């Protein structure tokens, strides 16, 4: 890949803590690096950074705090890891001000993300919740991955997260299209337009002004989150066919489309596997601690799918 071209950004989020965001982001970073991509893994869980533990390295002294506070560039705080092609940037750990960067500091950081020399892919491990900081990292990515468990509470959180991300993205296009008044109504709890979901909102905008409605719809259609169903039990997995992710994951994606109007797609399904806990305790990625484990093989499928997308995007760019 040529120097100077912006890296592709992959963000891994999810509404709840403990759903497997760090598992997915760190192991995908290792897998993509093993496939020859020059990867920068960034622990962007500004309040609860722990990706270094999964990589088995000491928490680096310089962190994202230093970037936010303009003491160093992203390139300068990136450390080497035991894995070829993989560099790492630690989250802000306990620094309160860096965990809540102000708007301009955050925008500066977001602009730097894709521009570190010698990096093809940036992988972001996000924190839980729907704070603007987390949503903005999620939305700036070329590939936004949402990790979900096959449990009603996790699914509920995932929908809430996607809805929040959708409205956050909409707020960015709001000024360009003069739809502030409709958004204002949609944001109020009991709105007379009956706008509750992103799909309702697009319909309301279209009704008021079909032309603007079409344009906003086209803008929002680019928000295509990918779902990873984690800790799936045997009955929730797909068949042995490599393209079959199973019904639970498919249903989840189609519910996003139907109820939220968000074109979510399934990126993969990971089984519940004790190898995960073993690897975490050993402070090693799955590729080292459990190379033959089912969860590692499932992550390889995800990495291959992502790589295929990255390659296509690279050719198209
Ligand atoms: N597929 C899985 N199989 C078994 N345990 C898992 C799996 N995914 C996650 N876990 C457990 O959940 C814990 C939290 O995962 P983590 O990736 O740290 O979540 P998050 O980053 O979303 O807070 C892991 O340390 C592990 O014990
Ligand atoms: Mg985490």
Question: What can you see in these coordinates?
Answer:
This protein is an alpha/beta fold and 317 residues long. The chain has helices at residues 21-34, 51-55, 64-68, 74-77, 96-99, 103-113, 132-140, 152-177, 180-187, 198-208, 210-221, 247-260, 274-281, 286-289, 294-316; strands at residues 8-13, 39-44, 79-80, 86-89, 121-126, 143-148, 226-232, 265-271. The protein has an 8-stranded mixed sheet, sandwiched between helices. Helix 1 (21-34) packs across helix 15, helix 8 packs across helix 11 and helix 10 runs antiparallel to helix 11. It is globular, with a radius of gyration of 20 Å. The site of adenosine-5'-diphosphate has 17 residues, from helix 1, strand 7 and helix 13.
What layout of secondary structure does this protein have?
Elements: E1 8-13, H1 21-34, E2 39-44, H2 51-55, H3 64-68, H4 74-77, E3 79-80, E4 86-89, H5 96-99, H6 103-113, E5 121-126, H7 132-140, E6 143-148, H8 152-177, H9 180-187, H10 198-208, H11 210-221, E7 226-232, H12 247-260, E8 265-271, H13 274-281, H14 286-289, H15 294-316
Parallel strand pairs: 1-5, 1-6, 2-4, 2-5, 6-7, 7-8
Antiparallel strand pairs: 3-4
Helix pairs in contact: 1-15, 7-8, 8-11, 10-11
The structure holds adenosine-5'-diphosphate and magnesium ion.
Residues 21-22, 45, 50, 125 line the site of magnesium ion.
